[in-house]
Amino acid sequence: MRATRDGDDASASSSTFASTVLRVAMGLLDRIREDVRTALSKDPAARSSLEVLLFYPGLHAVWAHRLAHAFWERDHTLLARGLSHLSRFATGIEIHPGAEIGRRFFVDHGNGVVIGETTEIGDDVMLYHGVTLGGDSMKREKRHPTIEDGVTIGAGATLLGPITIGRQAKVGAASVVLDSVPPHCTAIGNPAELVGDCQETVPEFEARLGDGGSEP
């Protein structure tokens, strides 16, 4: 009887896992179509959807992450980490499966990108190669950047800690960003400083962060 119950439990567990994989895969198909359109619109070197599907490691890493993140949220953490590891080996891009990434996320070129566990990325964000979204603490807490909608981060930039990069902001290539950047601003240099004018003033942005962090 016990062997029968164990067999039934194993069968039920396998069925549940298979249904989870199927649901995740179906949702991923819609995101793939959207991501391909995004690549075609943002990269003038892209010639066709087939080219993007086959030869854009940045997208391959994002798709692998979406699957790994789904497993991570369902407590299949070992499987999620394994998939993330394989993706890093295949693409040269490291995205922790715990990172939260929005829609139409595009990594151009991609090699050397590192995205940490508690990173939060909004919609329509674009990263170039060599970007690091890293932590500044060894504690199990929010320790990586929050990147709001529409942000562009240049090649080789390093962003550290639980800072917020406001919507539509830009970070210059090779910049080191240790403080939050208000929306619509541009930050460049090491350490990064704001240049030009911002549509939302710095005090308004700091007040918004004080009221509970980035807006949804």
Descriptive account of the structure:
The protein contains five helices and 15 strands. The protein has 216 residues and is of the alpha/beta class. The chain folds into two domains: 1-93, serine acetyltransferase, domain 1, CATH 1.10.3130; 99-216, 3 Solenoid (UDP N-Acetylglucosamine Acyltransferase, domain 1). Helix 1 (2-42) packs antiparallel against helix 3 (57-73) and helix 3 (57-73) packs antiparallel against helix 4 (77-91). The longest helix is centred in the N-terminal third of the chain and has 41 residues, at 2-42. The chain is globular, with a radius of gyration of 19 Å.
SSE pattern? HHHHEEEEEEEEEEEEEEEH
Distance between the termini: 52 Å
Unreliable spans are 212-216
Strand content: 15-25%
Radius of gyration, in Å, reads: 19 Å
CATH C-level of the largest domain: Mainly Beta
The coarse silhouette is globular
> Which strand order spans the largest sheet, edge to edge or round the barrel?
3-6-9-12-14-15
Q: Mean pLDDT, rounded to whole units?
A: 88
Provide the helix percentage.
40-55%
Instruction: Note the total helix count.
Output: 5
- Beta strand count: 15
> What is the CATH architecture annotation of the largest domain?
3 Solenoid
GO cellular component, one term: cytoplasm
Protein name: Serine acetyltransferase
GO molecular function: serine O-acetyltransferase activity
EC number: 2.3.1.30
